[in-house]
Design a protein that fits this description.
Strand order of the largest sheet: 8-7-18-19-20-17-21
CATH architecture of the largest domain: 3-Layer(bba) Sandwich
Largest sheet: 7 strands, mixed
Number of helices: 18
Helix content: 25-40%
Number of domains: 3
CATH superfamily of the largest domain: FAD/NAD(P)-binding domain
Shape: globular
CATH class of the largest domain: Alpha Beta
Number of strands: 22
Strand content: 15-25%
CATH topology of the largest domain: FAD/NAD(P)-binding domain
Radius of gyration: 23 Å
Bound molecules: flavin-adenine dinucleotide
Length: 484
């Protein structure tokens, strides 16, 4: 019987945990002996359930895209039940009021100008500028461009400012003038290389999506009772039960190649170091940490990784007496930066998720309405310059202005996410392809996580699965070669 290879996974966020799962739960049983090394006190990375105002709530990711299979099927395999959002009706706070999201938007790019006009989101001059798209000469895409450049050129800068910015701010905490069209709206990029009009390109993408989905209409987003953070805790429990060695407070300092093996140098954060020997290493860390670890092993890949920037973000959770929040409708709203407020989006958690509503009903005499505000955009120094107390006050004040809730909520809690979201800048796809090409020179070492092909949880799980396949393939080639 051949011995299973030992694989060290660095980083115990959802990508690292999912990688450990794929290494140990293949159709033919475990493919490796796995050690996961996580620098923080807890596993899960940006998946976390925290106690806030007497409730256990997500303070990191809170929803899973259900139109991609990876997260939903992992939940199913773990026996975790997902539940659709109770409402997905969202709004945009634009021109001083909350306005219902019009239908027919593709990451903010409109396709139904009637609905857009009726929504009141845009000014009349902004609306009248949009159809010029049909008359303008083709925008030739020789390669990647920023979403902002493309949309402003075709449809006018107000579409970027009032529709695209809030979407990109919500998902990437990024800015339209620096985020990559190729990465953030890839289907639009492809369609725009074939069509002159951006409106028609966006409409064709939405139509293709409808045709591909067919008549079956499942939810677009789902949550997990008790929080999406439970995906990490339940996954970790299952991994532990199946013999995966999960170590926290294990700060990986260095990765070194020694013949066919790897030495992973681990610190305990208090000056003590040890070396873990591995047949292969999977870096499931944010790009900056992966760049540090790769520096002495693969300088070129390390340099490319270091060029990936991050946005710091904060989640502010606020509770209000339920009777003061009865006028709130739908699942929440996004705020374009042009409105001059700090909060970039608010989720009405107790309206969006039944499980939060149930928990919030029993938590106070008359129940609570729970809201979750996001703060932080790439390049904005606000988070560095503000205390938690200031962030809490700013969030409550912005919410008071936008939806008329009292400036003093019943409770408020701030969670900061340093390096919360990677920025897919123009050229990101090429950069990632180059990183992967450089890594071919370092067989037995792979990377996965939010920094590469998608920031959402399903994409992270997908990247973990792909990295595991690459590593296993390399190990079997190495073994074949060694045995002639
Ligand atoms: C506030 C917020 C809300 C979000 N909401 C959603 C959402 O609703 N839906 C969705 O799909 N996505 C959401 N996302 C995105 C998604 O949560 C993340 O992209 C994803 O969880 C990243 O997982 P990861 O494992 O790749 O990275 P991480 O979660 O960052 O995990 C990497 C781990 O590596 C560890 N590490 C770093 N350096 C070292 C080292 N030297 N040694 C050992 N360990 C190390 C870190 O401590 C960390 O735990 C959100 C993100 C944020 C910040």
């Amino acid at each position: 019987m051949t011995q299973l290879p030992h694989i060290v996974v660095v980083g115990g966020g959802v990508s690292g945990l999912a990688a450990a799962w794929f290494l140990t739960h293949g159709p033919h049983g475990p493919r490796a002996r796995v050690t996961v090394l996580e620098s923080a006190d807890e596993l899960g990375g940006k998946l976390r359930v925290q106690q806030v105002g007497g409730l256990h709530l997500d303070s990191g990711a809170e929803a899973l895209l259900a139109t991609r299979p990876e997260a939903v099927s992992l939940c199913r395999e773990l026996g975790l039940e997902t539940e659709p959002a109770a409402t997905t009706k969202a709004a945009i706070y634009s021109r001083g009021s909350l306005r219902a999201f019009p239908g027919g938007l593709l990451t903010g790019v409109p396709t139904d100008l009637r609905q857009l006009a009726a929504s009141g989101i845009m000014s009349l001059p902004g609306l009248l500028r949009i159809p010029l798209d049909h008359l303008l000469p083709r925008t030739v895409l020789h390669g990647d461009v920023s979403v902002g450049d493309f949309v402003s050129t075709r449809l006018g800068s107000e579409v970027t400012a009032r529709l695209v910015e809030p979407m990109l701010g919500g998902v990437y905490a990024g800015r339209a003038d620096s985020l990559s069209l190729q990465m953030t709206v890839p289907a639009l990029y492809r369609a725009a290389t074939r069509r002159r009009s951006a409106l028609q390109a966006a409409a064709s993408v939405l139509a293709e999506g409808r045709n591909a989905r067919g008549p079956r209409k499942g939810p677009i987003f789902v949550g997990i009772e008790g929080g999406v953070g439970r995906l990490a805790t339940v996954l970790a429990d299952v991994l532990r039960d199946t013999g995966v060695d999960l170590q926290t407070k294990a700060v990986v300092q260095q990765v070194r190649k020694r013949g066919d093996l790897w030495d992973v140098v681990v610190g305990d954060g208090r000056g003590k170091y040890r070396t873990v020997e591995a047949d292969a290493v999977l870096l499931a860390t944010p790009a900056t940490a992966s760049a540090d670890l790769l520096e002495s092993v693969n300088q070129a890949a390390s340099d490319e990784l270091r060029a990936i920037e991050y946005a710091d973000v904060a989640v502010v959770t606020l509770g209000y007496p339920a009777d003061q929040a009865r006028h709130l409708r739908g699942s929440g709203f996004l705020v374009p930066p042009v409105e001059g407020l700090t909060v970039k989006g608010v989720t009405y958690s107790s309206s969006k998720w039944d499980w939060v509503a149930r928990a919030a009903r029993t938590s106070a005499d008359d129940g609570l309405a729970v809201l979750r505000a996001s703060i932080g955009r790439a390049g904005d120094p606000l988070l560095d310059q503000s205390s938690d107390q200031e962030l809490a006050r700013i969030a409550a004040d912005d919410i008071a202005v936008m939806v008329g809730l009292p400036r003093r909520p019943a409770f408020v809690s701030v969670t900061r996410w340093h390096q919360g979201l990677p920025q897919y800048a123009v050229g990101h796809r090429t950069r990632v392809a180059e990183i992967r090409e450089w890594l071919v020179n370092t067989p037995g070492l792979a990377v996965c996580g939010a920094a590469y092909e998608g920031v959402g949880v399903p994409a992270c799980i997908g990247s973990a699965q792909a990295a595991v396949s690459t590593l296993m393939q390399q190990l079997s080639e190495q073994r074949e070669w060694a045995h002639g």
